[in-house]
């Protein structure tokens, strides 16, 4: 199972790529494998500031719908529109073409609360 070392993670199975004060967010390989085939990604928080741990969208799989939780407080500045036509990119490339949103980070001190790749591996028992 892929858990890139350069990313940060949450207990809710989101990954975070930090670039300056911008963060790219998606769900982990583990999360997408647990969900199964993803058929729809719903994010309606673009241009909104969403607090850490609040819901920024949802992922619909064949079996279930799961909320997506914000790993850091910030303004949602972009949604990966490719997922509207090809939500399966989350399954096939969760850390690449399957990214979900980009945000402008409001409070960079929250980054320290995220899990390292090693901590995330321990969380999921990998």
| Low-confidence segments | none
The beta-strand count equals: 9
Beta-strand fraction estimate: 25-35%
CATH-derived topology: OB fold (Dihydrolipoamide Acetyltransferase, E2P)
Helix content: 10-25%
Strand order of the largest sheet: 1-2-3-9-8-5
Q: Any idea what the CATH architecture is?
A: Beta Barrel
Order of helices and strands: EEEHEEEEEHHEH
Major sheet size, sense and barrel closure? 6 strands, antiparallel
Average residue-wise pLDDT: 97
Mind explaining what this structure looks like?
This protein is of the alpha+beta class and 126 residues long. It has a single domain, classed as RNA polymerase II/Efflux pump adaptor protein, barrel-sandwich hybrid domain (OB fold (Dihydrolipoamide Acetyltransferase, E2P)), CATH 2.40.50. 18% of the residues lie in helices and 35% in strands. A 6-stranded antiparallel β-sheet has the order 1-2-3-9-8-5. A 3-stranded antiparallel β-sheet has the order 4-6-7, with no helix packed on it. β1 and β2 form a beta hairpin. The longest helix has 8 residues. The protein is globular. The relative contact order is 0.26. The model has no long low-confidence stretch (mean pLDDT 97).
What is this structure, in a nutshell?
This protein has 126 residues and is of the alpha+beta class. The protein has helices at 29-35, 82-85, 89-92, 117-124; strands at 8-9, 14-19, 22-27, 38-42, 49-50, 55-61, 65-69, 74-79, 101-105. The strands form two sheets. A six-stranded antiparallel β-sheet has the order 1-2-3-9-8-5. A three-stranded antiparallel β-sheet has the order 4-6-7, with no helix packed on it.
